[in-house]
Write a structure and sequence with these properties.
Length: 334
Amino acid sequence: METATARAPRPRATPAAARSAGLRRGLEILGLFSVARPALGVSEVARELGVHKSRVHRALTTLEDMGYVRREPATRRYALGFKALEIGALAGRLANTMGWARPQLRALAARFSASVSIRLVDESDLLVIDTIESLDDPELHLPVGARVPLNYGAGGAVRAAFMSDREVLALARTHGLPRYTAKSLVTPQAFLAAVLRARKAGRAVSDGETVRGSFSVAAPIVNGAGALVAVLVGSRRREGYRAAQIQAFARAVAEAAGEISREGAQSGRIAGPSRAKAPPASTPAGTKNPGKATGVPAAKGPGRRRPGARPANASSPDAKAPSTRSSRGHARAG
């Protein structure tokens, strides 16, 4: 049975002697590749990791032998290899533990001519695990595997609504709030105001903050305990859409998120525990029982999550290119 859960608690720290420095270095090198940096040279990797070029060369040679990177003959720089593609594609298929909710995504996409995605909670980020893309506007497409930071559209506001105000402000100040358009929320106070609105409404709307001329709407998907597991996000162009139509789209997304939460909890497909749990003091009615409606809990005190957990590379209605790296980078639509 498919089960959707947030990231499990971190394992206990492993003694340094039990770790492989060589394997760690190889994985760190793979983690440097991104849409913005599709190819890397030995010197570039050495500077990035702060290690000698000879060690980087040995690690890259090993990765090349295994098919995880390939060297481009013309530039002698390294790019990801086909083995990385194979493993990444497999991880994407296995990570989508909510494929059973696709009918709701398809229905929303067809009804509103929009792109609709489910984004799984991963630390302070959201990770796109399934998406139905609108054929009308490729700029709004956000690929499976894209990592979305806190201030990237309506989805980030819903994610942050399950954190305490203190956590939200700490993350914003630690990692910054990138500017995607002139309307982006780039100050901690402005972003927190959007989070408070999302808590109150039980859903969020982002209008032109990530992709100019577009908007996104989002609502929480929770487990039986009311903990946030994922976020349902819809996005489309603003053109021809009045404010009342945007709110109708937002209500439809909230209703679909409630249906997914209810069906998942009743069938056992959405399980707990989740670390994305807001302080219980002021949780509104409905949040703890997905059979009623999904709500966004208000948070007043410090939460239990690690303050300063990195946000990641994301996407929502106003960015230029999606990324699969962490929230220290930028992302794209929705």
